[in-house]
Amino acid sequence: MEKRHENLLNILLSTNESITISELANSLNVSKRTVRYDLDNLESYLSNANLELVRKPGIGVYIEGDDKYREELLENIRCKIVSKDIEEYSPTYRRKYILKQLLLSNRNITAKNLAEELFVSINTIYKDLDKLEEELSDLNLDLQRERNNLNIEGEESNYREAVFDIIPLIDHIYFNNDLENNKSDVDRIDYDTYVKLKKILDIDYNFLENALENIEEKLNIQFTDIAFTHLVTHIAIAIHRVKEGFSIYMPDQIFEEISKTDEYFLSKELGDMIEEKYDIKLPELEIGYISLRIMGSKNILDEEVIISSKEVDKFGTPGKIAEEIIEFTSDLTNIDLSHDKILLSGLTLHLRPSVNRILYDLPIDNPLLEEIKKQYPEIYGIAWMTDGIFKKYLNKGINDSEAGYIAMHLGAALERNKEKIKTVVVCNTGIGTSEVLHARLEKEFPDLELIDVLSYANLMEYDGEVDLIISTTPLDIDSPYILVRALLGDEDINLINATIDKIYKERYNKWKN
After folding, report:
1. Which of 184, 259, 272, 289 is the most buried (most CB within 10 A)?
2. Angle, in degrees to the nearest 10, between helices 377-385 and 316-333
3. Among 283, 291, 281, which Cα is nearest to 257's?
4. 252-284 burial, b if ≥16 CB within 10 A, otherwise e?
5. DSSP 72-138
6. Is 63 within 8 Å of 54 (Cβ atoms)?
C-alpha cells in the first residue's frame, strides 16, 4: 500500500465525523480526483477489514464499523507510517536528500539547515557529508564547506552528469502536482522519469518531445526509448543550468568538428525554439553539447539493418573497428565469426554512436553491466581486450559500460556460432523406428548434428569424427555413449540434455584455459 493511501486511512480512522473530498485533498496535498481514485482502491481493502467506506454526496466520507476493527486497523496503519518514516531518514536517504539540495537548490545551504530539515544532529550531517564527499569525488566533483555554506564545485559537464545520475533516486510517492492525472502530457518519455523530472525541473516536456521528434524525422532516424528519455533529460538539465547562469565548456577543436554536422544545424533550430519559449540565450557551446548528445544516442532503425562485408566500408571507422573486433575474437576463441552478418551489423551500428561517445568523452549507462561481468566474465574480458583496437583508430580506449555492450554482441554471436555436437545414432530395431528416432532427435535437439543412423555392425567399421553416440541398444565399445529408448521418454530427453550441457561445458573450459 502506498504511503498516501495509509495517510488517507489514518485521517478517516482518526475521526467519526464525515470529511469532505476537498478537505482530504488539502490535507494530503493532492487533487480531489486523486482522492476519489484512492477511495475507490480502498473500498475492498476496508471490506476485508470488516469495515465499510461510506460516501454521502454533499456531506462527505467516513468509515463505518465496529470500534474494535477500526482500532486494529488504525494501529496497523500508524505502525506502517512510523516504519516508513524511519526508513525515509536512513543514512542513504539523507545523502540523497542532501545531494539533491546541493545540486538543484538556488539557496544557501548549511549543515544546520540540513540538520533541522532531516531531524538529526549536526554531527550526523557532518558524517553524511564526509561520505558524500567520497561519492562526489568519484564523479570528479568537490564538496566545498566554506563559512558554514555548502556547495558543489567542478566542471559543468561533470555537474550535469551528477544531476542526471540522481534523477532515478528521487522518490516521488510523497508528492503529486496532479501528475498522475496528466499522463497525456508526454508520449515518449519514460513516465517514471517524467514524474521525477517534473519534481525537480518543471518545464514543458511535451515541447521537448515534439522538438526531438522533428529532429528524428529530418535525420531519418528513431531514437530508442531509453535514448529518447535520456536526450530529453539532458536538454532539460541544460535549460535549467543556463537559466541559473552556467554554461558548458567544449574544446575549440571538438566544437569546430561538430559544427559542420547535420546534428549541429538541427540542434541550432532546437536552440532557437528553446530561446523563444524560455526567454534565455543559449551559447553556441550549448548547441554543440546538444549535438553531441544526439550523435551519441542509439536509434531503432539501425537495429533493423543487415550489413554485408562488402557494404561495411561505407560506415567508415565504426565499420573498420567492428571488423577488427570480429577478427580478434575469432582468433582468440577459434570460432569463425567472419560470416556472421548479424554480428557485423549489430557491432557496426552500435559503434556509430559509440565512437562519438568515446571521442567526446560522453558517458553511457549499461544497466546490465554487473550481470554481464558475473555471468560471462571471459566474454567480458575479450571485450575489454578490444580496447587496443579503439586506441588504434581513436587514440582513446573504452570504459566499462562500452565493454559491456560489446560483450553482449560477442556473447550472442558466440552462442549462434558454437559448433554443433557431431552425433551418430545406433539403432537395431528396424528402419521405421530409426527414422522416427532420427526425426525426434532432430526436432528436440537443435544442438546435435546428426551425421548418420547406423547398426551396431556398421558402427564398428565407422571411422568418422564423432562427439556423441546415442544408442537404443547396449554397446560393447570403449567410447562413451548414452543408452535411450527408441521412442524417447522424459528420462531419455533429460539425459540427452544433460549430456549436451556437459559437452559444451567441457568445450568452454578448454577454450577458457
Report:
1. 289
2. 130
3. 291
4. eeebeebeebebbebbbebbeebeeebeeebee
5. HHHHHHHHHHHHHHHHHTSHHHHHHHHHHHHHH--S-EEHHHHHHHHTS-HHHHHHHHHHHHHHHHH
6. yes
Cβ–Cβ under 8 Å, residues 300 and 224: yes
What is the pLDDT at residue 430?
Answer: 62
Reading the block at residue 154, the C-alpha cell is 567542478
Q: What is the pLDDT of residue 210?
A: 93
CA distances, 45 to each of 25, 40, 49, 180 (Å): 20, 10, 7, 22
Residue that is written with C-alpha cell 554536422 in the block = 261
Q: Which three cell numbers stand for residue 192?
A: 517514471
Tens of pLDDT, residue by residue over 5-28, are 777 887 888 777 888 888 888 777
In whole angstroms, what is the distance from residue 391 CA to residue 388 CA?
A: 5
C-alpha cell at 87: 526508513
- Residue identified by cell 566533483 is 141
Cell 548479424: give the residue.
Answer: 342
CA distance 406 to 393: 16
C-beta separation of 482 from 471 below 8 A? yes
Ramachandran category for residue 410: left, alpha or beta (phi over 0 → left; psi -120 to 50 → alpha)? alpha
Q: Give the confidence band of 72 by pLDDT, cuts at 50, 70, 90.
A: confident
Instruction: Tell me the Cα Rg of the chain.
Output: 32
Q: Answer yes or no: are the C-beta atoms of 390 and 359 closer than 8 Å.
A: no
Q: C-alpha angle with apex 512: 507 to 513, nearest 5 degrees?
A: 100
Long-range contacts of 173-180 (CB under 8 A, 24+ apart): 173/2, 173/3, 173/4, 174/3, 174/4, 175/29, 175/199, 176/4, 176/28, 176/29, 176/30, 176/31, 176/34, 178/30, 178/31, 178/33, 178/34, 180/34, 180/37
Per-residue cell: 120: 538529526
Distance CA 170, CA 190 (A): 14
Cα–Cα distance for residue pair 106/264, rounded to 1 Å: 31
Q: Cα separation of 77 and 5, whole Å?
A: 10
Provide the H-helix boundaries in 201-315: 205-219, 225-243, 252-258, 262-278, 284-295
pLDDT of the residue at 39: 85
Give CA 429 to chain center in angstroms: 55
Average pLDDT over residues 316-325: 92
Distance CA 170, CA 88 (A): 12
